[in-house]
């Protein structure tokens, strides 16, 4: 798929992977719209990259999704919907069997899964009407093997991976022009991974791989360790679980 000349909407484009994606898609000749919940952060990224369009919008809020659609339509529509925004609770918010965990878990599912389903539903007819269009959903290594420090986050990414595969098939059966990409990152050095004590790859490296994958129409874009984890967990699930969840996680869960 060609990127130059396309208009892309990146949810959660004010920090981390989304901000780097905005930078790289702009430099590859795309028009870029980014969202986020915080107006100050949106103003900062607009100052950094004046060509960006910024819209305040919460992925988990259905009214925001409708208003986002209306604003995007006024701007001429989009060719690519890149579902990047995501949240991970913990590890300090753990404790699986309590009300606090339930609230956090509900929010994680709303942002990381249901919000994405809602945005895809909201934008699908707009995308179908374009000559060449795509949805990009962001899963993770933990969609194959759960991280014991982030139980619902892992579950939300597993749900998203299953949904993404089925959505791709469904759209193909309907003869739709909308491609569905799954971006499966390993640990990436951003605010989200700061508490994990794991060295990740840079957002720049991840987004480079995403752009190569899109250009090659590679439906699942495994980056870095993700391919290794994917293959290993099919052969040796218990070993892979221990590799993803080293002894220091047990220590964290005990304190
Ligand atoms: N970092 C990793 O190791 C890693 C690994 C695998 C997958 N991923 C996935 O990659 C994606 C990006 O992660 P990241 O590491 O770049 O995270 P990040 O640095 O925490 O950035 C998250 C972005 O999403 C926005 N956001 C959060 N909740 C939102 C909501 N409800 N509505 C709209 N925007 C929202 C944030 O801005 P506001 O808070 O201002 O709204 C921010 O711009 C996520 O889906 C994450 O699960 C990350």
From TrEMBL:
InterPro entries cross-referenced by the UniProt entry: NAD(P)-bd_dom_sf, Sc_DH/Rdtase_CS, SDR_fam
Keyword annotations from UniProtKB, A to Z: Oxidoreductase
Pfam families: adh_short
GO cellular component, one term: membrane
SUPFAM superfamilies, per database record: NAD(P)-binding Rossmann-fold domains (SSF51735)
Gene Ontology terms for molecular function: oxidoreductase activity
Annotated family: Belongs to the short-chain dehydrogenases/reductases (SDR) family.
UniProt name for this protein: Short-chain dehydrogenase
């Amino acid at each position: 798929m060609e990127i130059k000349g396309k208009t892309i909407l990146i949810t959660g484009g004010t920090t981390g992977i989304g901000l780097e994606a905005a930078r790289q898609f702009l430099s590859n000749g795309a028009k870029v719209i980014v969202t986020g919940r915080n107006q100050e952060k949106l103003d900062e990224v607009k100052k950094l990259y004046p060509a960006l369009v910024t819209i305040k919008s919460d992925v988990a809020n259905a009214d925001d999704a409708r208003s986002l659609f209306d604003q995007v339509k006024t701007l001429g529509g989009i060719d690519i919907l890149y579902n990047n925004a995501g949240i991970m609770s913990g590890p300090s918010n753990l404790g699986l069997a309590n009300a606090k965990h339930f609230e956090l878990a509900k929010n994680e599912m709303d942002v990381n899964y249901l919000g994405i389903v809602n945005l895809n539903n909201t934008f699908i007819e707009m995308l179908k009407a374009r000559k060449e269009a795509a949805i990009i959903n962001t899963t993770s290594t933990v969609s194959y093997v759960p991280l014991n420090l982030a139980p619902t986050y892992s579950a939300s990414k597993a749900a998203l991976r299953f949904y993404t595969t089925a959505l791709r098939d469904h759209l193909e059966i309907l003869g739709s022009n909308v491609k569905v990409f799954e971006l499966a990152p390993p640990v990436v050095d951003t605010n989200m991974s700061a508490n994990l004590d794991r060295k990740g790859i840079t957002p720049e490296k991840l987004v480079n791989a995403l752009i190569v994958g899109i250009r090659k129409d590679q439906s699942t874009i495994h980056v870095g360790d993700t391919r290794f984890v994917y293959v290993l967990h099919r052969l040796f699930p218990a070993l892979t679980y221990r590799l993803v969840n080293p002894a220091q996680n047990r220590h964290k869960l005990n304190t």
